[in-house]
Specification:
Rossmann fold
């Protein structure tokens, strides 16, 4: 009986350019081994439209496949090996609540520009597009927040409060000009919890979401490394709490973290605060040259739902499978929001 790895190899060879497998950096090594393109959210989003492939299989979480489905050409089909691989942070912003919150905040006549992290549903991106907003990634958050601040009176940044605050710090936005919405906007009724007067005169309004994986890192672990290994460098993802980011030697997207590890001098010791699959991959890549360790073991269970076996099963049923789609009334404004990002970052 053919095993999963042989099945993947056989189908990839048979389909050639009509198949493209994309993988996010947080995927396991077993899955990454079969990807044609790997990258962070921005890198992968930029690739979709130019791919020759009819079938694009996205090894990542569902919002990434949705983004691909928004940007795809009509002749392309997007697939994901496990539809239940969601993003907990993306799930913290529901489109109806985002729309209601924007309407409440704009009652005073202020124009609030929504800027959503790419870690959000297609429906949320659709709402953002309708309200003249755009999308950002951890790689371009500074550029996009600067863009959004010029489009209206204030910005609603969602769903990640930490990325929003860290980006505001790099831009020098005073803390007194920021406002974090009450947690009830995540799973309650915004009309009962959002007070528009509390957000008056604020430049940046933050949705109270966060990444449970990056929220695991602690300031104490940073202090312990500083005390025991003062020569070690610490770099983290900007989804971490601002206190962790401030205490680190650098912060940035997965692409930044990969580049930092690559450019570090031989013999360096580097602690990286992000999902462990990427850290382990970098540690293996530079073994014997530099020491790379996780700041803390932090594995994304949803990324882990994509397995070699599920990838093989997806490839075997491509022709009959139902691809990931986004209905047109959501797709069009969501695409506009994404295209604003791609244009601003081109």
């Amino acid at each position: 009986m053919e095993n999963a790895k042989d099945t993947i190899s056989r189908i990839r060879a048979a389909m050639g350019d009509s198949l493209s497998i994309l993988g996010h950096h947080y995927q396991s090594d077993d899955v990454i081994a079969y990807t044609d393109i790997r990258g962070d959210s921005l890198e992968l989003a930029r690739k979709i439209n130019a791919l020759k492939a009819e079938h694009i299989v996205f090894c990542g979480v569902f919002f990434m496949a949705e983004s691909a489905a928004i940007l795809r050409r009509p002749d392309q089909k997007i697939h994901i090996p496990e539809v239940s691989a969601t993003c907990p942070m993306a799930d913290m912003a529901e489109a109806g609540r985002v729309r209601e919150t924007l309407d409440i905040l704009q009652k005073s006549g202020r124009k609030i520009i929504p800027l959503t992290y790419v870690n959000s549903s297609a429906a949320v991106k659709g709402v953002v597009g309708e309200y003249d907003g755009s999308v950002c990634t951890s790689a371009n958050a500074r550029i996009m927040l600067e863009w959004a601040l010029k489009q209206g009176d204030a910005v609603l940044f969602l769903p990640d409060q930490h990325l929003g605050n860290n980006t505001a710090n790099t831009l020098g936005i005073p803390k007194e000009k920021r406002f974090i919405l009450p947690k009830d906007v995540i799973d309650g009724q915004p009309r009962l919890s959002v007070d528009p007067t509390a957000a008056e005169n604020k430049q940046l309004i933050l949705w109270p979401g966060y990444c449970p994986i990056h929220d695991e890192f602690t300031l104490e672990s940073v202090r312990t490394i500083r005390r025991n290994e003062p020569e070690a460098k610490i770099v983290v993802h900007p989804e971490c709490d601002p206190a962790i980011v401030d205490a680190a030697d650098g912060n940035g997207s997965t692409t930044y973290l990969i580049k930092y590890a690559n450019q570090a001098p031989e013999g360096s010791t580097i602690y990286i605060g992000t999902e462990t699959n990427l850290v382990k991959r970098l540690a293996s890549l530079y073994q014997g040259q530099k020491i790379i360790k996780p700041l803390h073991t932090a594995l994304c269970e949803d990324m882990g739902k994509i397995t070699v076996e599920k990838l093989a099963c997806t490839l075997e049923t491509l022709e009959s499978a139902t691809p990931v789609t986004v209905q047109n009334d959501i797709r069009e404004p969501a695409k506009l929001a994404l295209e604003r990002m791609l244009a601003a970052c081109s």
